[in-house]
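Q: Predict the bound structure with aspartic acid.
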Amino acid sequence: MESTKNKYVLVIHGGVGTIIKGNMTTEKEAAYLETLKISLFEGEKILRNKGTAINAIEAAISVMEDSPLFNAGKGSVFTHEGKNEMDASIMDGASLNAGAVASVTHIKNPISAALQVMQHSSHIMLVGDGAEKFAKQQGCELVDTSYFYNEERFQQLKLAQQNNEVMLDHSGENNNLEGNIENSGRKLGTVGAVALDIHGNLAAATSTGGMTNKQFGRIGDTPIIGAGTYANNTTCAVSCTGHGEYFIKNVVAYDISALMEYKQSTLKEAATYVIHKKLKHQNGEGGLIALDKKGNYVMSFNTEGMYRGVVTTDHKPKVEIYK
Ligand code: ASP
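A: Predicted complex:
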């Protein structure tokens, strides 16, 4: 096998959806692309300095969590009750260790809390108040819920409530929200990253605010290992975005790994099958980024667009939005 030692790859996403060029202002498009570039820059810095895939994806995701543009951390969408409840997970492909937090409301960077769960607890998933108590003990920054307030997102909630809909993220669309939702369907948020480091290890992570108008403590695929996130050095690292219920039912992230392990599918074959056949057939909107142990990567989605970017040892950072 061709050696990947001394080579690194970092792939990120900032959600999928009906991201139509005509519906996006030039300023907003530029802001998205710029934030994706900063995310790649911060992650790559770690990989270039011989750091781990885990630390690189945490850094890359934190940049997107700190931006109001993406549906994660600061930009999280609102629940039916007008709250921001966030989910995140991270997995190390070398050890199969993983950590996740769900329904947290005060953690500034849920991805860092998920990493603390992976590294410093004997559990994999912590939820709500318990997760916050643990994160605080581990030194994660907790903030007042007002930190997550965003007027545009709040209007999205009002609209979703009027239409009695649970919706995926509508960031990136212009102010004509109503028209856009009617004309262009749904749009999903969520951020994720997968990386291969120079030591040959894979890792994957995902962070989200979930779906606008979600109710009754709904938790999506993002914090569920195997559904929204999965990494295994012998196969691949995967981070998903889309209509979470479909990703849970189809155990999408693990399904990609399983197709490679049991059927000897290539990463591309596995992703194409799951995103464009299996999910599409069920009307399950979404996409994923994935990376195999040789450094091959895919960015697959069955929607109009996906905020995404990649940087490798051999190639400069590249960021894209549309199909
Ligand atoms: N998958 C996320 C969820 O269902 C949403 C998204 O990717 O936008 O919670």
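A: The pocket of aspartic acid is lined by residues 15, 71, 168-169, 188-190, 208, 210-211, 220-222, 241-242, 244 (CB under 6 Å).
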